Amino acid sequence: MKMAGLKEAAAITTALAALGLLAGCGGGDGGSSGATPTPAPQPAAALAGFWTTAAGDAAALALESGEVWAIDTTGTAYKGQVSASGQSFSGTISGWQGTAKDTGSIQGSFVPKQSITATLRAPSIGTQNLQYQYVTGYDQPANMQAYAGSYRADSGAMLSISASGNVNGFVGTCGFSGTVTAAENGKNFFRFKLQYANAAACGYFSGKATEGIAAPVDAKTLYTAEVATDGSAGSPNRLVKQ
Length: 242
What we know:
Residues 1-23 form the signal peptide. It comes from Extensimonas vulgaris. The chain has strands at residues 23-25, 32-34, 49-52, 59-62, 67-71, 77-85, 88-97, 100-111, 115-122, 126-134, 149-153, 158-161, 166-171, 174-182, 190-196, 209-216, 221-228, 234-241. By secondary structure, it is mainly β. The protein has two domains: 45-137, Uncharacterised protein family Atu4866 (Lipocalin, Beta Barrel); 140-241, Lipocalin, CATH 2.40.128. Helix content is 0%, strand content 50%. It starts with 22 loop residues before the first strand and ends with a strand. The radius of gyration is 20 Å and the shape is globular. An eight-stranded antiparallel β-barrel has the order 3-4-5-6-7-8-9-10.
């Protein structure tokens, strides 16, 4: 799934976890009692969803944990962390165009499951204003079997995804393989991990392990954002089922 930048439809931090355990000693009998574990915080639950622009040329995935992935028409893959209060949100986000990386801020307002108005500010791009619409298919469980098959990417990559989640593919003479898994929150997107061959043909992903997300736009199309696990490179893509 090598991302070399989107063409016509350029398409999208680790989930937070917290565990608390409180124990108190009883009075005369020396007994003790324990509290149930504290639920993981959900700083952006109302913002969660898969969102695209009206033209479908940019998209964003926001999770309940505040983890955000996005892609846009500049051929940039974004990854960040936000928190929401009421119907406003803000946070930090990094963007990659290959090995060129920039970090900035993102903020905006939203109507849950309807729309987002976002402003992105970063040194290399200045200010970007985006309007997103909610993709209702996000609320369905991810169906690995439905998206198993062969794909062509805008970057020129060819790849296959098995019903069990194995991925194999190539870009020219650059080979890669890995796995795809259904979203941990029961929603309609996938996470993937890939390993690229250590070869010049693989460009900035040569010898790299990568991770990312793939979000369905329709029955045949996935928008993806991919970042090297060492943070050295990243890019978006659009995959179309053949």
